[in-house]
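Support request, please re-run this one:
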Amino acid sequence: MAGPGRGAGALSTVWLCLLLAGPSAGCFTCLVETGVGQRLCWGYVLPNSIRSMDACYRTLERIFGDERVIEAGRVGGGYEQQLKEIMYEVIRPVLQEFDLKRHDASVYETRLQLAAEDFTREAAKLPRASDCIPPCGFQARGAVYSCVTCQYASCGLPLDCPVKELAVPERNRTVLRCEVGFSLPQDLQISWKFARQVRTQNTEQFEELTLGTDRIYAIPSTRPAQEGTYLCEIFTQERSIARVYYHLTVLSQDPGGPAELQRVFDTALLSPAQSEGPPPPPALRPPGPTEGLLSALLHHTSPPLLTACLSMMVLLLLVSLGRFVYWWSTQRGGRKLDWPRGAARHVERGGG
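Re-run finished. Output below.
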């Protein structure tokens, strides 16, 4: 039987491999020293009565690499030491029971599951990262400890920010701003990209528009062909920091609108004489009483009656004309006029 001190170098190598295994590390591997794991796993016995420390390490990795345990270990900056203290508190009773003693794998499973539950409950009480500003972006100030990488990392927020919807009338000026809610480093670079006629966050669909430090992208006169998704990627020489998306919808204008604007523009360019146009028609004089009566008769009298009335008027006109002609002829023939009585007496007195 191998003693507890034999093969220590090989076991340390196995433990180091677990530490470097990336996503499969787990909180036990990150927070507990290598020697503690060796003492704990020395007596791990498989169902076939074979002692296997490798199988014990895999059990620790599975139990303390559970998603709930990993999430409980995501504490804010400066709380890593308290996280380690909690781990040692829950492992100490198990270590005292199993230290250099043989136990079946089923007993290990039960004891380690209870220890993981205690760790999850106590670790969840520690403060989380307080400087993280959701919903996106790599934020170094909001560092959080991760049992996945065994080190502090960013807030764990995605680099891709939610797509912002933007609707702009056709031919209007559009301004896109590359902004995030947290402070950015001084040596940043900004790349503006465009995916035509689609709403997407798939970076492979974008074509680069500009590259530099300008956080503003302006479209002087928005056209339907410029509808689609715009991407602003913020990065430094070391890493990408955030990706901001705008989905632009171009609203079509009334087809008569541009023609009306053109007409106003053409009118403004004409000279005063040209812009006046033809003179207005003369104002109509309101009809007089006679014209009004005649108009009423013409509109409301039947044709036979109207003909009779006109005939009578013509007859009266002819009679009057005949009397005037007769009177005029007698005057030229020297006949005495039949003066009115008052006028005759006046002539007699004047003659006497």
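The first strand starts at residue 44 and ends at 45. The radius of gyration is 54 Å.
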